[in-house]
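Thread: Modeling a multi-component assembly for a lab meeting

Hi all, long-time lurker, first post. My supervisor asked me to bring a structural picture of a complex we are working on to next week's group meeting, and I have zero experience with this. I have the sequence lines for every component (633 residues in total). Could someone generate the structure of the whole assembly? Inputs are pasted exactly as I received them:
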Amino acid sequence: MSWDKKLINQANKIIKQYPQKRSALGPLLHLAQSKDGYISDDSIEVISELIGITEVQVKSVSTFYSMYKQEPTGKYLISVCKSISCEISNSSDVIKKVQEITGLNNNETDEEGIFTFEKVECIGACGGAPAIQINYETVEGMTPESTESLFNWLKENQPKVIVADILQEKFGGTRSFEWGIKDNSGTIASVPGFQNFNTVGESK
Amino acid sequence: MKETVLLTKRMRDFPSDSHLIDIYEKSNGYKVAKKTLSKSSPEEVLKEIQDSNIKGRGGAGFPTGTKWGMLVEDKEKYLVINADESEPGTFKDRILLERDPHQLIEGMIITCFAANIDKAFIYIRGEYAKPARRVQNAVEQAYSKGYLGKKIFGTNMNLDIVVHLGAGAYICGEETALLNSLEGRRGEPRLKPPFYPAVKGLYMKPTLVNNVETISSVPWIVENTGAEYNKLGVEGSTGTRIFSLSGHINKPGNYEIEMGSSFGEFVETLGEGVRNNKKIKAFIPGGASAPWLTGEQLEIKMTIDDVAKNNSMLGSGAVVMMDEDTNLVNAAKSIVSFFAHESCGQCTPCREGTTWLEMILDRVASGRGRSSDLELLLDVCDNISPGLSWPPKMTTICPLGPSAVSPITSLMKNFRDEVENMIPTKVLL
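Re: Modeling a multi-component assembly
Sure thing. I ran the full set together rather than chain by chain. Output:
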């Protein structure tokens, strides 16, 4: 098996939470992605052994959900919402800006492996449309100008931890609602920053 | 028009730390659960919920008391919280998860007491990373205090809660798809019957599947009685409801109100009017699946029954306002393209139909439409949902396919000239 001991331990901890092993499949795919940035054949093999289903069954589930990537993603996964509230609030201008800056088409990653760009469906930030996510950390009330500043900042600083509150403070505009709580926790990978995936990081 | 604040009270009183267990307890938190577990019977709790007449806040509006009453007795039973909020326009569960996660946990404890359940899951959409972290922290805090785990509050009740992240599939908001997903399968809705997860749900065992807002309401109802809750709002739409207001509005946001005011009043008062003093051309009363209403219908009351009478639905409580400058063909295309992307692919009318609708609308929106496209759109819609009636007739396992029909029939019924105007008069061959 090509997962290290730490990852295997985490996987077993997740599996134990469920009455049936197979229920852990979704979280284990997130875990796999936190390692490689996509669902590798290696991980499929490991997961199928861990929960006792075939590799094809793992693959079949991993290709159903849009958050499981079949090809390596860059360090920063840029997801721009295009659903109705964002669409009528000029999300297409934000999308154009991102494409202009990165030179990427939908679902493409740059050669340096820094940015992956994708257009996504509703991310639940409709009151703060148009909205964008960097590694699943939400920033609301974007404009083409603030998008440019955000990218410049990302390129210059290449932060290890992406934190929604920090990005929102620096680059965001109208919010869906008062976020209230100041939060320094975010993600250290191009997967959701979540305790079970060991992907939560703190920023100063 | 004012808000009536039950579920969003704590986050207003303690704006910077309403998510912490200390603050939660300081503001009456977990007292209802403690009292209920030691002094009440499960039957008494069920009766309060039934008396409240609360209807599910996920979109379908099924009476919660009835759902709980249908739960079949079994040694193995589950509660699953549907936090897969992804109906375009909706962001009300997000605020409850982010800012008052303990209220949800307390609601779950009381629910599990009423239904004699010892294992529960919170299925949160994968894109809600920050809300999921908050809920996970809250669950851990509750465990450390002995409010979850074995013998909670020193009673004989055990309860374990697992926070489960989805991976980007709107269809998992459909409860049987959600259960499949939680079982580690593709998120495809199950063929009915069995109709109700309360009979055969997770691992084919009796399961309550309830929305975040519904279960977050439970502590208030049990504390203040179902009869008090029933006094709020109007008959058929009791209690308060959190509406997500977005679109061309001066003050978008989540608003907790008693149902019964009109959409127009809602927009003018809490929403502080339409941006740049424009007029509303069309609006969506209950999420992307709901047929649109027009600017002339703003006086319709925000109740489940009133909106249904006008051939639409209050759905998930997502109100999207579109002003007079909105390109409605693009708006419809955005919604149809959403459903095409999110179709699970099991049923042919939905898989093929939504894809064709998207392609035809794209052609029209980009100025390459044909005069025959209008009838073609309606014909494809008719194949997905015969008769184009409301509520829609189904040719599919779940309502996703018919949902894609809503924006097109709305467009054709009320704004046909806008579509016609986008068709070039002469097509050069």
